[in-house]
Amino acid sequence: MIQKRSYKKITQNIGLLILVFCFFIGTIQAQTISGTVTDEETGASLPGVNIVVQGTNIGTATDMDGNYELDVPSLNETLLVSFIGYLSKEVQIAGRVNVNITLTPQTLVGDELVVVGYGTQRRSEITTSVASLSAENFNAGLANSPEQLMQGRISGVNVTAQGGQPGSPTNITIRGLGTLRSGSGPLYVIDGIAINNNSNTATAGESFGVGSASPTNPLSFLNPNDIESIDVLKDASATAIYGSRGSDGVILITTKRGQQGQSQLNYNSSVTISNIANEIDMLSPDEFADFQASVGQSGLDFGQRTNWFDEITRTATSNNHSLSYSNRTGESDFIASFNYSGQDGIMIASELESFGGRLRANQRFFENRLDIGFNILANRTRTDFAPIANSPSTNGGDMITNALTQNPTNPVRLPDGSLFPITQEGFNPLRGPEILTNFTEVTRILSGINADFEITEGLVLSGNFGIDNSIGNTISQVSRHNINRIAKPLGGLVDAKRENSTLQSEATINYMVDFSNHSLNFLAGYSWQKFTQEGRSWSIDSFSTEEIEGYHNPSIGTELSISENRPSGFYQENQLQSFFGRTNYNFVDKYYLTATLRADGSSRFGSGNRYGFFPSFSGAWQLNEESFMQNLDALSNLRLRIGWGRTGNQEIPNGITEQLINVSSGSGYAFNPGQITPGITFVRIQNKDIKWEVSDQTNVGFDFGFFGQSLTGSIDLFRKVSTDILFAQTTGTDPINATSSFWSNFDMEIINQGIELDLKYLHQFGSNFFMEIGGNLSLLDNEVKDLPVSILRTGILTGRGLSGETVQAIMSGLPIGAFFLLDYQGLDQDGLNQFRDVDGDGAITNADRVYAGSALPDVTYGLSTNLGYKNWNLGLNFNGVSGNKIYWNDHNGLFNMPQLFAGNNIARVGFDPNEAPNNSATASTRFLYDGSYFRLNNATLRYTVNTNNLPIRGLDLSITGQNLFTITDYPGFDPEVSMPRAVDGIQSFGIDSSRYPTARSLMFAINVSL
Amino acid sequence: MKLLHLKITLVVVLCSLLYSCADLTTSVKDTALGSEEINNPEAGLRTLAPAYLSMNSILNRHEWMNNLQGVSSIEQIVPFRGGTDWFDGGRFFEMHQHNWTPQHITLINVWGNTTQGIGRASLSQKTISDGTGDASLIAEARGLKAFYNYWLLDLWNIAFDSKPEDVGTTNLSTPYRGGEAVDYILSELEAIESSLPTIQEVGEIRFNRSAAIGLKARLLLNKAVYSDRYAENFDFSNDMQSVIDNTTQLINSGTFSLENENYFFLFGKENEGHPEMIFSFNQEVETGGQHRLAYFHASRDRFASLIFRKTGSDGGAITQDFYDMWEGWRDDPRFFHRFLPDGGSIADEDFRWNRGIQIGQQYGIIPKQGTSIDWQRDEDGKLLILPLVDDSRSGKPMNYTREIGLTEDNDHITGARSLKWDMDRNAPGSASSVNIPLIRLGEIYLMRAEAYARLGNWANALNDVNTVRTARKARALNANELNNMDQLFREIMFEMYHEHWSRTYMIRFGKWEDSWRDKNSTDKNKRVFPIPQFVIDAAQSEPGYIEQNPGY
Asked: What's the mean per-residue pLDDT of chain A?
C-alpha cells in the first residue's frame, strides 16, 4: 500500500558518487611560515594562541614564548588568530614567511552574543541561567527536529524520544515538571516568533482496533541544517520575559543568515544506513518447540522455524540533501536553502519524506539605521506509519506485539507464496501492513517580517509580524480483510484534517545609554498573539472495489451511518496580549543588575483573572575583577549570578472558564424506539476564577574559568516551586454535579530543585592536535506537596487482562512519575506470585501497593569530546541517566509463562520453569526495571579536504555512527522511553510497551561549499 | 528631514499598535455556550435525554453494575483466565472475594455515573420548570432522580436530595442515610405519582406511573435492610402489606402480562414494547448501546452474527455453587433453551445462539478460511453447525466445565456460562440495541410472593411463584417445594439471575456472609460499599458532610 519513490534511488546514487569521488582528492604541497604573537598593550608574548588558516582545519598554537610555526597551503591565505581574553583577528599572510601578530585584549571575557528573548546580550552581561548551543556543537547524524540536536548537551534539559519511528515526537523537560497535566513543554521561539507546538496531526489508525500510532513531531518542519544556534532560557529570571508561558523554560532557535564576505554556496548530502539497535531476547524457535514438547504440548509445534521479528524489520536507507546559498554585501544579506529528506524506518512500511525551503533576507537603509528582515520557511512532510501502536490493544493488531509473540513454528508463507493464514487472534504479522494504510501529510509555513530602526544613537525601535500555519491530513484506511478482531471487514477510511495557525505582532523600543562607569539598557514592548486550532474528520465504510484506494476516491465506499461514521470537528482560538519591559544595568563591568516585568493577558483565563504579572530580578558580580581576587593567576573568570523570577503555565484547554454545553445525539435517548432525541449536556459550568499555574524560581550560579579559560564551566543551583496547580477533578464537595469534571487551581505545590554543572576543557597540543572535552551533569529532585486528594492514579497499562490497570500515582510527598505497585516477593512452591501484605489483612488488595521508585531520573549527564589532528576530527558524544525506573508493560502483558503455555512466544526474561502455567500476570514490582543507561549517542569522524588548489572553498567528508552502544540492565528495546500513558490528562512517564524500536545508524556525509 | 518623517511614522505605527489592544474575548464556535439551547422549547426533553443515558455507563458493561451485583455474589466469577486474561487490575477478584477498597475502579465509575444521573435529572427538572413548566416532564425527571437515588442507597447507603435550583451553585445537596433515605425516596415517588405519564402514554422505556409503583414496592421490600444495614436479623413485618398492595396494583392493572412463549425473549430484541416490561433502559446503537453482558460470558470463538464478526470474550462464568443450585431443576426452560442443534446444518435464517446456562461441548458456526466473511457450509450451502474450539487462546475444544476458581480451574474454557442476554445480530462491533429491563412483571410477582412468605402466607406465595413458573413453561411446585426462605431464594435466583440484583437478594435473605468457592469473607461491613476515595477527599472541605461507611 506504500507508494515507492523512484527518485529516491537516484538521489541516493548521486550522493554516493560524490562521496567516493571526494575521497580521491589528495593533499597539496605546503609552505612554512613563522612568527610571534604579542599583547598589543603590554608587548608580552602570548603562549597558547590559536592560529588557523581560514577555511581549513590547518592550525597551530603558540609555544611558551609566543612563537609559532605553521605549514600553510600558500602565502595568499588568511590566518584566523584567536585567544581567550583577546579579540579575534584576521591576518593576511600577503606573501610573507615571517608574520608577527599583535592581539588586543578584551575588556571582559565572554564576548559572544547570547539570544535572550527580545534581544541579544553578550555572555558577559548575562545575569541569568542561559545555555547556548551553536551549530558546531550540535549532535551529528540523522536528525529530524531541533530537540535531537541538543540531547545530552545541556544540563537541566532532558530530551526523551517517544520511539524510533522516523519523525516521532520527543518529550523535553527543562528543570523538571511543574504541572500535573500532560502536554506541557517549553515555549519555542524561532527567530522571534513564538510558535504553536501543539500536534498538527490527528492520530492515525486508532479507528480499526489496532491502537493509534504516535503523532508526528510538530517541530520536524525545521531543517536542522538551517539552524545557527539554540539558546535555552532555564531559570525564571530569564524566562519571566515570556510571562505566562515561561515556566517550562524557553527554547530560542535562531536560523542562519548570510555571512559577511563573498557569496557562498553550500551543498550537504548524506546517506544513512540504519538497523535495529537492540532486539528483545526472545526464546528461539527451537527453544519454544522444545519447551512445548517438554510439557506435552508438541501439538503447538507446527514444524517451521521462523523468526517473525526479522520478518518485520529491515536495513533502512535514508537520504538527505540540503542546498543553500547566501551573500552579504554592505546593505543587504540573504540566505536561501532547500532540503530533501527521505527516510525509511527500520520497521517495514514506515517511512518519512520531507521537502522544505527557506529564505531569509535583510536590507539596510539610511546608513544602516533601518534594518528590515524577511524570513519564510516552508515544509511538507509525509509520514507513513507501520501498524504499530502506542497502546497496543488486546486485539493483536499491533505489528510488533504480534511478531514478538507469534508462534515461531508457523511458516511465513504457504508454498504458493501467499501469507500463511494464522487462525489465532494474532494474525500473520505481515498482514497488517498489507491491509492497513496510515499516513499523515503536514504542510507548514512560518513567515515573518521584522524591522529595527535606530532613531538616535542608542534608541532602537523594532517591530515584527509573523504567521505560523500548518495543515495536517491524516489518512487511516483498512482494506477488506477477514481478521476477526480488526474492525470494518469490508474496508473503511477515516480522513482527518487539522489546521493550526498563529498570528503574532510585536513592537519593542530599546534605549541604551552609557555615562562614566554606568551602562543602562531599557527595553519596553508590546506583543499580541492569536492562536487558532481546528480539525474535522469524516469516514466511510465498505469499499466496492479493491482496485483503487479509498483515500484517492472515497466514493468507492458504499456505507455511511451516523453511529458508525459520525463526523467530528472542533474549533478553538485564544489570544494573548502582553506588555513587558526589561532594564539592564552594568557598573564598571563588575556589577550587573537585570529586572524584567511582563503583564500577560490571556483569553484562556476567566474574566476575574485575565491579566497576570510576572516579575524577575537578577544580578551578577564579576568576582575575579575584584582586587582581592587579582593574585589568583589560575583563575581567569569567576562570576556569581543570583536571580529570582515568577512565571506561569497557561497550556490548558481553551475555554475552561466558560460554561460549556454539548448538544449531540450521542448523548441523547430514544424516547420512542429508534427515534433519538439529542441530549443537552453540561460539559462545564462557568468558573471565572481559573488562572495560570505560577512558578517561582530562585537560581544561584557561578561561571568560572581557569588557566587562561582553557577550563571553563558553570554551576547552578535552583529551586522552582509551582503553585495554583490546575487540573480537572471529577467531583466537587457535593457529589451531585451537573458536569462530569471541574477545572480548578489547587493550592498545592510541586517542587523541583537541583544542581547543574557544565564543564569544558580546551587544549591545543603543538600545531597539529587539539582536544576539547565537555561534560554536563544535572541532579534533580521533584516532589508533590499538599495534593488536595489522597491519590491521582495514572500510567495506564494495556494488554490482555490489564484493562484499566494503572501503575503510577500522584501523591503528596512523592515525585511525579512515582510507581505505585504491589511488592513482588517471588514465587511460592506452587509457582504462584507472592506479594507483600503491607496492611497485614491477609489479602492482597490495592491497599497493599507501595511506592517503588520514580520514572524521573535523579541524574542526567552528557559527555562530549572533540579531538582534532591535522585535517582529521573525531567527535564523540555520550549521554546517560540514572536513578529512574521503567515499567515494562510487555513483560507484564506478553512475556510470562501462561502466555508460553498458551502457545505464544515470550522473551527469555519471562521464562521461569518454576512458574505455574496459570500464575497470574498481576501488575507488580516484578515488571519494574532500573532505567539507568549510558550511551554513545554519536561518534563522528570528519576529514576536511585541503581545498587550496581546488576551485572550491571547502569540502569535508564525515562518517557518523549514531546510537553506537548502550550500557543498561534494561531488557526492552531501549531504556530511553516514554510512552504516553496519561489518565484523565494526568501525566505519566517511564512505561514501555512494544514501542517502535530505536535504530543504530551509520551516516556518510559530504559537505561542499563554494 | 526625511529621517524625521520616518521617525514620526514609526512612532505613529508603534502607538497605533499599542492602541489596537485586543479585548481578549474569545468566541467559542464549536460548542453551544448556553442560553440559546436552554431556551429552546425542546430543551426539556433534550435535558432529560442525557439523564436517562447515564444508565448506559452503569448497566451496559460487564464490569459495572454486573460486577457490583453479579460478580460480588454467588452468581458469577471471573478468574484470571489462563493467567493472561481478565485480571483487569483485580477488579473482579476483589469483588468476588469481598476485599474491595475505596479505590475500586467499578465503585468509582458506578458512583460517578449514578450521581451524574441525579445531577442531570435535577438540572433537567430546573430547565423544564424554567421553560414550559410541563408537570408530567418534571415528574419524570424527579422519578429518574429517585431511581438513581435508589441505586445509591442500595449500594452505598446514601441518597441525595438535590434541589434543582441548587445545581451548579455552591449550595450543597442534602445527604440522607438509612431509613431517612428510604423515606425521602418514597416521599418523592408519592409526590410525583399522579403527575407521571402512564405506560400507555410513553411506553416502558420512560419512567412511568407503573415504574414508580414498582420502585416503591422494591424499596419497601428492602426497607428493613436499608434502615438497619448491619443488623443480625431484619424485621420486615411492618412493610410487607405495602409491598403486597403496590405489587397487586400492578398485577391487577391489566396492563402487563408475563412472557409465556420463551423466557429469553425478555433479554433480546423481542423485549422492546413487551407486555411484561414495566420500566427498561432503551439501548440504541447511536447512543452507545453495548452487547457486553452477552459478550462477557461467551467465548472468543463463538460467533453471534452472520453479517458481523461478533464474538465473546471468555471473561465471566457462573460459579459452580450457582450451577449446583440448579441440581434437580435443570429441566426449567430458564436454565437452558436450545435454538441450535449439536451438529448438522441449518438455514441462515435459523441461526441464533442457544440461550441460558451453557455447559459441556459447545457448537456453532465457524468462519471459512481465506475469504472475507463467510462460514463453513455443507454442499447445499446451509450453515454447518460444528463443535467449537478455543482457537484464540488454548487451542482446546470449547468444552465448558462445572469447576471454576479464581486461581485454579481458571483455564479459558472453565466454568458454565450464562447466555441469558442476546447479542444484537444486526449491529456492528460491540454495539447493541437490546433493551435492559429494570422493572418487569416477573419480578413483581416474586416480590409479592416474598412479601406473602415473610408474613407467613406460603399458600399465596406458592401461587405467585407458580404463576411465574407456569408462564415460563416450568413445572408448578408443590406446597412442600416452597415452604422456606431458602427455597424461595432459589426460585428468585432462577428467575432473576444475571440481571443486576443478586447481591441485593443475598443480603436481604441473609446469605451475603455465606461462603462459596474463593469467597470466605464474613465481614458484615461488606453489605455496603465504600464511598470512592475521591469523593471523600473532595468533601473534606465541608467537615462531616459525607462520612465514609463503617469498616473502610
From this structure: 87
Rounded to the nearest angstrom, the gap between the alpha carbon of residue B42 and the centroid of all alpha carbons in its chain is 29
Give the end-to-end CA distance of chain B in Å, rounded to a whole number: 85
CA A243 – CA A580 distance, rounded (Å): 9
- Please state, in angstroms and as integers, the Cα–Cα distance from residue B333 to each residue in B256, B398, B441, following that order: 21, 23, 18
Q: Which of B84, B413, B434 to mutate to probe the A interface, most A CBs <10 Å?
A: B84
- Name the residue of chain A whose CA is nearest to B521's CA: A843
- DSSP label of B216: H
Q: Which of A761, A596, A725 is nearest to A986 (CA)?
A: A725
How far apart, in whole angstroms, are the C-alpha atoms of residue B309 and residue B307? 7
CB contact under 8 Å between B6 and A573, yes or no, is no
Selected residue with higher pLDDT from A321 and A422: A321
H-helix or E-strand spanning residue B508: helix B502-508
Q: Which of residues 359-418 of A touch B (CB under 8 A)?
A: 366, 369-370, 394
Asked if A806 is an interface residue toward chain B (Cβ–Cβ < 8 A), one would say: yes
B548, B271, B273, B551: which is closest to B432 by C-alpha? B271
Q: Min CA distance, B100 vs chain A (Å)?
A: 7
Rounded Cα gap, residues B212 and B198, in angstroms = 10
Closest CA to A285 of A197, A410, A461, A372: A410
The percent of chain A in helix, strand and coil, each rounded to the nearest 5, is 10, 50, 40
**Predicted model pTM:** 0.86
Beta-ladder partners of A612: A600
Quick one: B233 exposed, middle or buried, by C-beta within 10 A (0-12, 13-18, 19+)? exposed
- Please say whether the beta carbons of B299 and B394 come within 8 A: no
Question: Helix, strand or coil for residue B221?
Answer: helix
Q: Which of A155, A150, A274, A116 is nearest to A222 (CA)?
A: A150
| Residue B237 DSSP code | T
Alpha carbon A145 to chain centroid, angstroms: 7
Question: Of chain A residues 516-535, which have a CB less than 8 A from chain B?
Answer: 526, 528, 530, 534
- Nearest Cβ partner for A490 among B47, B372, B429: B372
Q: Where are the beta strands (DSSP E) in A386-491?
A: 436-456, 459-478
Mind listing the pLDDT tens digit for each residue in A126-174? 888 888 888 888 888 888 788 888 888 888 898 888 788 888 888 888 9
Please count the residue pairs, one from chain A and one from chain B, whose beta carbons lie less than 8 angstroms apart: 316
Residue A739 Cα distances to B36, B171, B410, angstroms: 19, 15, 41
- pLDDT, one tens digit per residue, over A7-63 is 444 455 455 445 444 444 433 446 888 888 888 877 778 877 888 887 676 777 787
Contacts of A779 (CB under 8 A, 6+ apart): A754, A755, A756, A858, A859
Nearest to B90 among A574, A671, A846 (CB): A846
ipTM passes above 0.90: yes
Q: Return the half-sphere exposure (C-beta side, CA atoms, 13 A cut-off) of residue B344.
A: 8
- CB-count exposure of residue A180 (10 Å: 0-12, 13-18, 19+): buried
The 3-state DSSP class for residue A204 equals coil
Cα–Cα distance, A693 to A599 (Å, whole number): 15
Burial of B481 (0-12, 13-18, 19+ CB in 10 A): middle
Model pLDDT for residues A511-563, shown as the tens digit of each residue: 999 988 899 999 999 999 999 999 999 999 999 998 899 999 999 999 998 87
What are the backbone dihedrals phi and psi of residue A672, each rounded to the nearest 5 degrees, phi first?
Answer: -120, 145
Average pLDDT of the segment spanning B163-173: 86
Q: What are the residues whose beta carbons fall under 8 Å from the beta carbon of B436, sequence distance 6 or more?
A: B55, B59, B60, B280, B281, B283, B293
* Residue-wise pLDDT tens digits, A692-703: 899 999 999 999
